Please model this.
Amino acid sequence: MPLISPFRLRAQRLGLVAALLLASTSLAAQSVRPDQAIEYRQSVYQVILWNFQPLGAMARGRIPFDRTTFRRHAQRLANLSGHLLEGFPEGSDSGAETAAKAEIWENWADFESKMNDFRKASRELAVASRTEDFEALKTRFGAVGGTCKACHDSYKID
Model:
């Protein structure tokens, strides 16, 4: 009987650990209570707003443009944009006060598409914030805001 190499044994162990982690993540996502999901997504949106406001203030000329500050907030938006969808598991349209319309889950493909538009525009803004001039950044920031509005118009209770 051939011996198993230590490298192969280690790879098998790592594979097993990865599979267990993925399984536990899936189970954890399924066991989230609606109020927890609502609290999660509201918290993410608050952090997005915290980073969006200074960008808007710079774009509107209310505060001076500072590339380092702009880049930091744009990068945070890009990072946060990838964490929103997990805050909308099915059944989280109630259980706590929420401004999310039930249409989100009825039109999931459209909602997901709008969220992906936000993610894409946010990431493009973050990349552009390293090199593009201020006028170009204002245009890109406007595109990010447009993705927010598109989703809010359809899926947020006023």
Summary: Residues 41 and 84 are 6 Å apart (CA to CA). The chain has two domains: 1-31, 33-155.
